[in-house]
Amino acid sequence: MSMDQLPPLRAVIAEHGLNADKRFGQHYLLDLNLTSKIARLCGDMSGATVMEVGPGPGGLTRALFSEGAARVTVIEKDRRFIPALEQIGEAAPGRFSIIEADALKVDEAALPFEGERMLASNLPYNVGTALLIKWLQTDPIWWTRLVLMFQKEVAERVVATASDKQYGRLAILTAAVAKSRYAFTVPARAFTPPPKVDSAVVVLEPLPEDQRFSDLKALSTVTESAFGQRRKTLRKSLGPAASQTGKSAEALLEDAGIDPGARAETIPPEGFFKLAKAWRAARG
């Protein structure tokens, strides 16, 4: 059996009774043009292992193979989908593997792979942000490209820059290790069942190692504090992070060359990198 001989996705869903489960934030993307468009954002996959989280009935999985992926590994928590995914394995013998697990608990870096390792996924809405932060904080970075679909609001937060309405902790954590771009919007009507909001695809590529900010734990601490009370000045909002050091918030900000009277959303990522260094130094 070849990929072209697989039954249509709607037939697979009906055959296996794969109704979308709201508990897992499941919304199926069955439009072959859209799944192919997402897969092509991975670029040349001829020598790559592409990982996919939450493949569901396998619409994007099929597209990854059709667009040239050498190998695909999927991580699926909902075992209802395993029989449908095994059909894809029959069409791509020796090139496809299924890991039945919670992606939040998987150590992707420890999995066997050949060539580059990319990741492409229509992420479940309820865990998309947590998964991205997990992949950003991996040390060393194991992926060469992430092609990820989120709720549109989350996608905008990933790529936001200082003073944007959506700018915050997620954009800064992303900018520390990767360059990101907003690829395109996917309207709610493209999904089955349609969610209440639109989605969007973003592409992330790791920065050269010497350009990354490596202390993401410190960066996570100061950004969580700084954006915890967005309407307050950093002099006040940074208090929780500063309390973990022997310095005041004002002293930490001055060490980083940041105006204590500024608000978090006006400070570019580089400012927060300096603040994280100052916080770490004060911790000793």
What would you say this structure looks like, in words?
This protein has 284 residues and is of the alpha/beta class. It has helices spanning 9-16, 32-40, 59-66, 82-91, 128-136, 152-159, 169-177, 216-226, 234-237, 239-242, 249-255, 269-283, and strands spanning 28-29, 48-53, 71-76, 96-100, 116-122, 145-151, 178-186, 191-192, 199-206. Helix 3 (59-66) links the parallel strand 2 (48-53) and strand 3 (71-76). Helix 2 packs across helix 3, helix 7 packs antiparallel against helix 8 and helix 7 crosses helix 12 (269-283). The protein is elongated, with a radius of gyration of 21 Å.
**Class from helix and strand fractions:** alpha/beta
Fraction of residues in helix: 25-40%
Strand share of the residues? Answer: 15-25%
Radius of gyration: 21 Å
User: Quick one: overall form?
Assistant: elongated
Number of helices: 12
| Mean pLDDT rating | 93
- Distance linking N and C termini: 61 Å
